[in-house]
Amino acid sequence: MKVKSLSYLFLKKLVLSNRSGSLVRRISILSFIAITVSLTAFFIVLFVMNGMNKNIKTRIMALEPHLTTVNTETQSAEVENYFSDAEFLKYQSFDLILRTIDGQFRGSAAVGYTTDGLNMWMRQLKNTKSHSKRQYFTESDLYDLSLGENEVAIGVDLARSLGLLEGDELTLIPPETLLLSSLETPLFQKVIVKRILVTDLSDLDTKLVLFNSDNSLKLFSKTLSRKAGYHAWFKSVDQSDRVKELLTAKSIKSETWQEKNSDLFFALKMEKTMIGVFLGLAGIIASSSILTVLVILMTQKQRDIAIIKTLGLSQKKTLWLFTKIGLWISGGGLVLGSVLGVGISLYIQYNPVNILPNIYYDSSIPSLVNFWFVGIVLAVAATLAFLGSYMPALITLKIQPAILLRQKN
């Protein structure tokens, strides 16, 4: 629509002019502002959540194995055949209870690698991008993790919850030991905290106990919670699904990183969906005031509409004239809101805002703009704006100039 169009002229004279009704003018301005603010907030919030989800996924894929197998020693050679183009580590894990010298208890998941496996795991940690601002972090953590006999490394949040520092002593207890009678000797192992690690993954920082399987925790080899197998990282994450299908056909248990973190990603998706729904509803409610503007306008300006029709404007052209008046208000709000929302989101995407304290996993506010999503939202919003302008304009079809003008006279 051109600035010199008839609909724009009527918008200024019938809606925005000081001579028009103050109620119509105020509601029109408020509607324009409400649509702009709603759409701006909608895009910014959802794109910021996209950025946070991407950061979480990046951290998970950096340290979480793409595929985890649980297999026996006799199946090891068969499993390794499927990892020809992947980096993999042989692991063993236990569910353990930690007891400090102060008498504090906490559950944990102990994972053991060989000496070479620990070095590779640390290389994976070195590749993560967002851990450098976390507490308890030093540069040496990225280059050396040599664990001797009965030495362990633990997650930073686990250390904080138990009040542990490097060099403190811990007692590791298998859960089934708690079921023993008072006459039986409990199974436990005392270890020294050699290193406090920062991974920026909640599951690891709050539960991880890392040990060298070559020389530590040999006493727990017969515990009920023990698992053994391989952790594999593929060049392409999509390979994990294909390899899992092959292993399942051989009756070998395996789990992909998507399955392991399915609850987390489902919760994030539901959170984003619900926030989007409520922000969308707020925008629809705000933009519905366009209906009020046009209905009041049709009611107050019936004589003017009758005069327009008498001067020769057809029913169809009159209908589209007042439809376009509504589109000027709603469409202007959509365009300005989209430009502001996408523009601010793009700025945050390339210049993350660092306003949060370093205790959070994401100390910066990221963003990730999805232009396909912008297009879909604009298409839906434009459709609703058209319907919201077209339906009230149908009132003009019921105005009969001859009858209305005769009654007025």
Describe the structure.
With 409 residues, the protein is of the alpha+beta class. It has 2 domains: 198 residues, no CATH class; 194 residues, no CATH class. Helices cover 52% and strands 16% of the residues. It has 14 helices and 9 strands. Strands 2-3-7-4-6-5 form a 6-stranded mixed barrel. β2 and β3 form a beta hairpin. α2 packs parallel to α12 and α11 packs across α14. It is elongated. The two termini are 36 Å apart. 31% of the residues are buried.
Walk me through the topology:
Layout: H1 6-16, H2 22-63, E1 67-70, H3 76-80, E2 86-100, E3 105-113, H4 115-126, E4 151-155, H5 156-162, E5 169-173, E6 189-197, H6 202-207, E7 208-212, E8 227-234, H7 239-249, E9 253-256, H8 257-260, H9 262-287, H10 289-300, H11 302-310, H12 315-350, H13 371-393, H14 401-408
Parallel strand pairs: 3-7, 4-6
Antiparallel strand pairs: 1-8, 1-9, 2-3, 2-5, 2-8, 4-7, 5-6
Helix pairs in contact: 1-12, 2-9, 2-10, 2-12, 10-12, 10-13, 11-14, 12-13
